[in-house]
Amino acid sequence: MKFINMPTLALAILASAVSTVVYSQQREIKESLVFSDPTVAKDDQWVKGVSIDYNQKTVDGFGYNSSGTRFSQSTESKAIGFSAYLSQGNYTLMFVHAPVRYTTSVYSTSTLTINGNYYSNELVVRLLLPEYRTEYFVPYVMGGYVMAEDKQDMDSYLNGVRYLNQKTEQGPGGGIGAIFPITSKYGFRSDVRYYLTRATNTNNHVSAYNYTESQKFIRAHVTAYYNINDNLNVQFGVQNTLLTLNDFFLKVGYTF
Hints:
Strand content: over 45%
Number of domains: 1
Mean pLDDT: 82
CATH architecture: Beta Barrel
Low-confidence stretches: 1-11, 20-28
Structural class: mainly beta
Largest sheet: 10 strands, antiparallel, barrel
Number of helices: 1
């Protein structure tokens, strides 16, 4: 089955809200303010950090079966993952492991339940561009590589055998973004990433779902951060992507 996710309205809402806060403050960004982002190195020192990540999404949408028939569906997902980063100067190396367990209910002539296990590993190098900073933000560019796998166990049988589907995907990508420091305690960052991947799908019953092809997807996200103290921080954000099932995420991090 081919699934289509509905757009994430929360992404636009959060981006609009934090933008309003920033633009209401008429002040010039001091170079030191960008250090409030826990993933940015301070005074050319090495900065290391880890976080425990909680990801959750609930979405209603629609999809199509192999015959082209449209049906409605809803998906719920949640899982615990982790992130780590290493920063020095204007460079930051970031790694995110995001596993997701999800359940999709498909409403057609009868209700079909799909149990899925998904994970993605994303490695990204970010370069801050402080020479191009404005009074509101500091821009950055990034490049990275993503690997993902999605296993689906469907509550449907053919000749006594359950439907199983597995998809793997990996490839390079790049993006642009910016850090919007508001105070020395909190701010937010936002970026858009574009990936070109090679995807392989296998299905034990439907031959049309056995394929290998080039694919592409865009991931956009907004993350707000707050520093509880010099070491402990929390981050909350939303993202919209054509690959992952993550939507809302909460990170509790520690910086060394």
